[in-house]
Specification:
alpha/beta, seven-stranded mixed β-sheet, Aminopeptidase, about 210 residues, 7 strands, single chain
């Protein structure tokens, strides 16, 4: 396990990029937790996996951002410290200026430190697939060429595949990476208020899948 990059948010909290890999790897997978500060269970799953992974022998390189939005997590808000929904702030073609509510996409696309950090990771490491961990719908959502991948994740977790989350998401990460860059993107919506051990039992297999089977 190796921390290969990090940045500070506008309030001084650190965002880490952590790598697990062998000497040679076949593919690169990026896994991101806590896009929204009030959805913390993705970080729990990532940290639990990293704690249990004393010796990594997977064929693929896995990159982790355990908590993309530490400011929102500290504030217990969906948005970051600037009141921006990071999942509406990506410079996708469908970004649009929106009302300053919990879905506010920022004054400009890609305006936030957190968003810029993820865009930098995408450009530098060219992931072959991306998994983001959200809450609370208990479904496997996908963007880009990820239908078969979504089916595999569904079999592991027991969560149904849902290719449309049911409402518009201008400037979303899935649009930016999945639709516009043709990267398979899975948005795994975890169940809300699930017991931690149940959550781990349901989802621990996804890490082994990305390490060796993807």
């Amino acid at each position: 396990m190796n921390k290969i990059k990090s940045i500070k948010t506008c309030t001084g909290n650190e965002i880490e990029l952590i790598e697990l890999s062998g000497a040679n790897w076949a593919k690169t997978v990026l896994i991101i937790g806590v896009f929204h500060g009030d959805e913390p269970d993705g970080e729990f799953l990532i940290r639990k996996y990293l704690e249990n992974c004393t010796k990594y022998e997977g064929k693929n390189r896995i990159l982790f951002v355990p908590c993309l939005n530490p400011d929102g997590k500290a504030l217990k808000t969906r948005t970051n410290a600037n009141g921006v929904d990071l999942n509406r702030n990506f410079p996708a073609k469908n970004w649009e200026k929106s009302n300053k509510d919990e879905y506010f996409g920022g004054e400009n696309p890609g305006s936030e430190i957190e968003t810029a950090f993820v865009c930098e990771i995408i450009e530098e490491f060219s992931p072959d697939a991306i998994l983001t961990l959200h809450e609370p719908y208990k479904v496997v959502n996908f963007d880009g060429p990820a239908e078969n991948l979504a089916a595999d994740i569904s079999r592991i977790t027991g969560y149904p595949v849902q290719n449309d989350i049911g409402y518009p998401t201008p400037g979303s990460f899935g649009t930016y990476c999945g639709i516009e860059r043709n990267i398979p993107v899975i948005t795994l919506e975890l169940p809300e208020n699930e017991e931690k051990e149940v959550l781990w039992r349901q989802n621990k297999g996804i890490f082994d899948y990305f390490a060796d089977l993807f």
